[in-house]
Design brief:
This protein has 211 residues and is of the alpha/beta class. It has 7 helices and 14 strands. The structure holds zinc ion (ZN) (2 copies).
Length: 211
């Protein structure tokens, strides 16, 4: 049974998720912690729950989602697991950070690349990868079929979708991926987005004005 802990970090209010099960092995999704107190909040939670971080996974490498990657790398010895098409964003993260007013000195290194239909295992649990570009190249969604949830990064939000006006953004591709990959999961799947509140596939299929 996977427990999902959500933090909301940095000025862009990114949702960082910790996924862990009864083994206490834990995946950190989108390490967006930036301020010192956010680093502490993440670290203290991991200590208090007795968790063992085994993977740092990025839904995509826009700057607001990777601000805490160097902290996680230093603290837990974990590099980044991601889709390789997003590497250009990671390579440019430090210059991008300064444009958005963040003082970012380093980012973690990528250590593993995932692609469509890959299964990632941690503890007694698994996550399936969907490749869903359109907001940004390299964007992935993370699905757990047993508990019927999907972490969507900036692909799908509650009654909204990711921006498509940034480099590599493409509205038609994004819409197609949402319809053919996310809506196909079924209406019961809970949606855990990269920003804002949780929703469900059923709610979005009925009410999302962008699709
Ligand atoms: Zn983004
Ligand atoms: Zn974002």
């Amino acid at each position: 049974m996977i427990t999902i802990k959500r933090f909301t970090f940095n000025a862009f209010q990114v949702n960082t998720y910790l996924l862990f099960d009864e083994t206490k092995e834990c995946i950190i999704v989108d390490a967006a912690n930036y301020e010192n107190y956010e680093d502490e909040e993440l670290k203290n939670y991991i200590i208090s729950e007795g968790l063992k971080p085994v993977m740092m996974l990025m839904t995509h490498c826009h700057i607001d989602h990777v601000l805490g990657s160097a902290f996680v790398e230093k603290t837990y010895g974990l590099g980044i697991t991601m889709h390789k098409a997003g590497k250009v964003f990671l390579d440019n993260a430090i210059s991008q950070a300064s444009i958005y007013g963040f003082n970012l000195k380093e980012v973690a290194k990528p250590v593993s690349f995932v692609d469509e239909k890959d299964i990632l295992k941690f503890g007694n649990s698994e996550i399936e990868i969907l490749y869903t570009p359109g907001h940004a190249d390299g964007s992935i969604c993370l699905v757990n079929h047993k508990q019927e949830f999907v972490i969507t990064g900036d692909v799908l939000f509650q009654e909204s979708i990711g921006r498509t006006d940034l480099p590599t953004g493409d509205y038609d591709i994004l819409k197609k991926n949402i319809i053919t990959k996310l809506f196909m999961l079924g209406e019961n799947y809970k949606v855990l987005p990269g920003h804002g509140p949780s929703t469900s596939i059923g709610h979005e299929a009925m009410n999302n004005p962008f699709i």
